[in-house]
Write a structure and sequence with these properties.
Layout lengths: L1 H16 L4 H11 L7 H23 L7 H22 L2 H5 L1 H23 L8 H33 L4 H21 L1
Helix pairs in contact: 1-7, 2-4, 2-7, 2-8, 3-6, 3-7, 4-6, 4-8
């Protein structure tokens, strides 16, 4: 039983922490970059709401309620990153930082979109057994990996802003611009 948990937990961790998961990493960067280390509780909730949306779409796929063409979802995912990066660039990170309830809703919605693409990869390991339990185990791994990435973004932001004296606005603009530069080619692939 414990072995099963760790097997599915590692699948969830790998989904976010591998190079092929650049979409998750870029979205999380854009989501977290407007916040500073003292906002850690808000960031945990943002990541958790994103994971909740991701889990909802896995459940919808596992129980045959939602089935979308992967190529459409794969196109929409970079658009979610593009939107988050542009909002940060245009507002200097203020919009995401000031409208937290709106951002929670967006996190769930974008999590659903990101999860729709992942179900196609995951469904082979869900054959047989308790799908709900396996999805929750995978989602625990996804959540843990996403929290690690969020913590890294917060730590880097703290280092750049407090030690290197980079303004928060410049930090948000640079990180969001990097994400934008990396996501544009994804849109056209």
């Amino acid at each position: 039983m414990v072995e099963d948990f760790f097997f599915y937990f590692k699948i969830g961790m790998g989904h976010v922490m591998e190079w092929g998961a650049l979409d998750h990493i870029l979205f999380l960067m854009c989501l977290c970059v407007p916040y500073v280390l003292k906002d850690w509780a808000k960031v945990i909730w943002l990541v958790t709401f994103f994971t909740l949306g991701h889990t909802i779409s896995l459940l919808l796929g596992a129980y045959g309620i939602a089935n979308f063409k992967r190529e459409y979802v794969e196109f929409i995912i970079p658009i979610t990153i593009l939107i988050a990066a542009l909002v940060n660039i245009i507002s200097g990170g203020k919009v995401l930082n000031q409208n937290i309830k709106l951002v929670y809703g967006i996190s769930v919605f974008f999590g659903i979109i990101h999860g729709l693409a992942y179900y196609g990869d995951l469904k082979m390991v869900l054959i047989g057994g308790n799908k709900l339990l396996r999805i929750l185990e995978v989602s625990t791994g996804v959540e843990t990996a996403q929290l690690i990435i969020a913590f890294i973004v917060l730590m880097l932001g703290s280092m750049f802003q407090n030690v290197l004296r980079v303004s928060k606005k410049d930090w948000v603009l640079v990180v969001s611009s990097i994400a934008l530069g990396l996501v544009i080619p994804m849109i056209f692939e």
